[in-house]
Specification:
By secondary structure, the chain is mainly α. It has two domains: 72 residues, no CATH class; 222 residues, MetI-like (MetI-like fold), CATH 1.10.3720. The protein is built from twelve helices and no strands. The longest helix is centred in the middle third of the chain and has 39 residues. The protein is globular. The protein starts with a helix and ends in an 8-residue tail after the last helix.
């Protein structure tokens, strides 16, 4: 197990380095100058040259890369070109906001997906199964921003049940603890549903197929021959059979959620990492883009590493490749 962990940690570090290197050179290979936004009649060429020197854009590209890589290892991400603040301070505010969306969405994906998948397998080829399959396909094929806009227009604008945007209501800054919690939970509902529904429907289809295959197994037929109730057979015997595929889905769901957060946070004006990164891309804010990409890669690779470890713990028969 220790050898497996050491090998996977080394692979993870090399993968993070590769993602950082590729992102750095792709950003600098794109056309345009990141200091072009400072161009105005009031700024003289010497002042612009001083700005380029201040941000380090006057140095050769390989020196910029080595300097930036050294700063990454030291935990220093530089300063934002557009906001003038340390990038670490910007991301320190954005990361908790993104985790407020992704963690509940991940839990909802598996709770809702396992429930719907179990129902579909139990009522196989009947109307609940057909309805879950067709509704799941519709949600899975729908773009996240379009799903968010539909939920927003229905539950926030038309019915007025939920707030439209942001993480909290500004007027409740001085409210009590419980009122603040209720307000924040209300703001979470729509973006979490937007992130979770496509993944939950995909998980439901995956669970259903595994349960249907398990129901044809010999040990399930033996349980049926003993006269056990159908739901007990499904929950206690067939569902554990799908635990390994669910662990694989866990490793795939986290990158899916981080990618979906880009558009979801923009639709709901959520002050998270996806929105910060998207704004930085449009503004060509290199330090923020590179830092956000690095942290996203680290989180995704760490999630996959945890999934691999859980996979081996759940099934000791699996051996790491030599």
């Amino acid at each position: 197990m220790l050898t497996f962990l050491a090998r996977r940690m080394l692979q993870a570090l090399l993968l993070v380095w590769g993602v950082l290197t590729l992102t750095f050179f792709l950003m600098h290979a794109s056309p345009g100058d990141p200091t072009a936004r400072f161009l105005s009649p009031q700024i003289s060429p010497p002042t612009l040259a001083l700005l380029r020197q201040q941000f380090g854009f006057d140095q050769p590209l390989h020196w910029q890369y080595l300097k930036w890589l050294r700063q990454c290892l030291a935990g220093e991400w530089g300063y934002s070109l557009t906001q003038g603040q340390p990038v670490s301070a910007i991301l320190a505010e954005a990361i908790p906001a993104t985790l407020q969306l992704t963690i509940p969405a991940l839990l909802l994906i598996f709770v809702l997906g396992i429930t719907l998948g179990t129902l579909g397998a139990h009522y196989r080829q009947r109307w609940p199964d057909v309805f879950i399959n067709h509704a799941g396909l519709a949600f899975y094929c729908m773009p996240s921003f379009w799903l968010g806009l539909l939920l927003l227009s229905l539950f926030a604008l038309k019915l007025g049940w939920l707030p439209t945007s942001h993480a909290a209501t500004l007027r409740l800054a001085e409210a009590g603890f419980w009122e603040t919690c209720r307000d924040r939970l209300a703001h979470l509902v729509l973006p979490v549903l937007t992130l979770a529904l496509p993944g939950a429907t995909a998980t439901a289809r995956y669970v259903r197929e595994n349960l249907v295959n398990a129901m044809d197994s010999t040990f399930i037929r033996l349980a049926q021959a003993k006269g056990l109730p159908p739901w007990r057979i499904m929950i206690r015997h067939a569902l554990p059979h799908a635990r390994l595929p669910l662990l694989s889905l866990l490793g795939l769901s986290f990158p899916f959620l981080l990618g979906g957060a880009f558009l979801t946070e923009t639709v709901f004006a959520w002050p998270g990492m996806g929105r910060v990164t998207l704004e930085a891309i449009f503004a060509r804010d290199y330090p923020v883009i590179l830092a956000a990409t690095a942290l996203s890669a680290i989180m995704v690779i760490a999630g996959n590493l945890i999934t691999d470890v859980c996979y081996r713990l759940a099934d000791p028969r699996i051996k790491a490749p030599a």
